[in-house]
From TrEMBL:
PROSITE patterns: N6_MTASE. It comes from Loigolactobacillus bifermentans DSM 20003. Residues 1-24 are annotated as: Disordered. Gene3D superfamilies: Vaccinia Virus protein VP39. The keyword Transferase applies. Keywords: Methyltransferase, Transferase. It comes from the Bacteria. This is Putative N6-adenine-specific methylase (Putative). GO terms for molecular function: methyltransferase activity; nucleic acid binding. The keyword Methyltransferase applies. Coiled coil: none annotated. One of its GO terms (biological process) is rRNA methylation.
Length: 182
């Protein structure tokens, strides 16, 4: 795994050891950012199921000002800290060890980009999106990237969001939404 492009491009990232975390492949990561970016002019990013932190780190590398990286596993948090250290810009990241529901109830800063890559067996993507909408955690026109199993089909119609597309990459599906209205 590596950071593909931007300020930190080319730097190697460590995966989380074991099988509890499924890393996003570089091919899928590059495709995701070609769809939602590929570069940003600042903003706040939330990587809610961060794993190794690769998606949030990529977003900051490509121009996001700051990323909040959240994961509930101790091993993942240790790897995220090591991967953030490779950027030599740790002040651009906040790492939180907690579960998604607790994190969402405690966060207060609205985000411009949300990266949701939950464990495939524990997906609550729609509930997470609805909570973020109601809690004011999304800036106008915020983009949301949801990585799921290709067997999971997220709704095309979701109150408060505009469906931007679904893309399949083997066993992985990437669904993009944007917060509706300004």
């Amino acid at each position: 795994m590596r950071i593909i492009s931007g300020d930190f491009g080319g730097r190697r990232l460590k995966p989380v050891p074991g099988r509890a975390t499924r890393p996003t492949t570089d091919k899928v990561k590059e495709s995701i950012f070609n769809i939602i970016g590929p570069y940003f002019s600042g903003g706040q990013c939330l990587d809610l199921f961060a794993g190794s932190g690769a998606l949030g780190i990529e977003a900051v590398s490509r121009g996001m000002d700051h990323a909040v990286l959240i994961d509930r596993q101790y091993a993942a948090i240790q790897v995220i800290k090591e991967n953030v250290a490779t950027t030599k810009a740790p002040e651009r990241f906040k790492i939180i060890k907690t579960n998604a529901e607790r994190a969402l109830s405690q966060l207060q800063t609205p985000f411009d980009l949300v990266l949701l890559d939950p464990p495939y067996a524990q997906q609550k993507v729609v509930a997470n999106l609805q909570f973020m909408q109601q809690a004011g955690l999304l800036n106008p026109a915020a983009q949301i990237m949801c990585e799921t199993s290709s067997e999971t089909v997220l709704p095309d119609t979701l109150t408060g969001f505009t469906f931007k597309g679904r893309h399949l990459y083997g066993l992985t599906a990437v669904t993009i939404y944007q917060k509706a209205g300004l």
